[in-house]
Amino acid sequence: YKWTFNYNGQIQSWKVPCNGTYKLEVYGAQGGNTNGGKGGYAAGSKSLTANTTLYVVVGGAGACSTSQYVTKTAGGYNGGGYYAGGGGDSSGCFSSSGGGATHIATATGLLSSLSGNRGAVLIVAGGGGGGTVRYSTYAGGAGGGANGSAGSGGAAGGNQTAGGSNYYAGDHTSYGTTFSNASFGQGGGYSAGELMSGWFATCSGGGGWFGGGAALTRGQYAARGGGGGSGYTGGLSNVSTASGQRAGNGVAYITLTAISN
After folding, report:
1. Residue 221 above 70 pLDDT?
2. Residue 84 β-bridge partners
3. HSE-up (13 A, CA, CB side) for residue 132
């Protein structure tokens, strides 16, 4: 038996039907833009007891902006970093958000909400970082896998112990604008303050065990790629991981591989 969990923007619950060994597989979501980093892959086995409830959260793909005007837009569901930026038009996407992570846990909640209950998390696949194709082309970093990849010319990917560092170019501090660092379950990106006018871009980080950093640029600088989020398999055995495997929204699978008494 195999159960499939597609993206729906909600926390999905699943009750274990019988005692046995199950294979858990998760794919993170792609970062915003056509060259957003692809989501990572993680898989492993777990002995589960009948009637135990697992919670599956499937990451949503990041978005991008072709608007000439500054906008603030949420990242992909389950930890993709927010973005804000202007200077785009119909010929290209200047700013983009990170893709969300996909995870399975024994406790409900988005991944970032489980920072104080990390033992409940069984498996995570990281989301990809946002990319840009306006003026110059910089791809977002791939989601992990074990570790997220750095964005092209830009922000660092998340790893097993910390979020990726942000990349900065140009003056972004004198406008009263602040940016969030990547953290557990959350990619870096725009946080608060004045939304600056054109020639400002954010390519945000993907969600993950630890999120990827954001690339933040102002002035006559091309936007750079956001970092991918990291994955996690510490709650499983017989694990396998791969970076950059999933375009679009994430997905998760649970497969019964052996029944036990």
Report:
1. no
2. 72
3. 38
Predicted confidence (pLDDT) per residue in 171-196, tens digit: 666 565 677 899 999 999 987 665 55
Pick from 224, 226, 115, 121: which is nearest to 165 by CA? 226
Whether residue 206 contacts residue 229, with contact meaning beta carbons closer than 8 Å, is answered with: yes
| Rounded Cα distance, 246 and 261, in Å | 36
Concatenating the DSSP letter of every residue in 200-241 gives EEEEPPPPSSBPPP-EEEESS----PPPPPP-B-TT-EEEEE
CA distance 110 to 190: 19
E-only strand ranges, the chain:
2-6, 11-15, 20-27, 39-48, 53-57, 64-65, 71-73, 83-85, 95-96, 102-105, 121-125, 167-169, 178-180, 189-192, 200-203, 215-218, 237-246, 251-259
Report whether 236 contacts 211 (CB < 8 A).
no
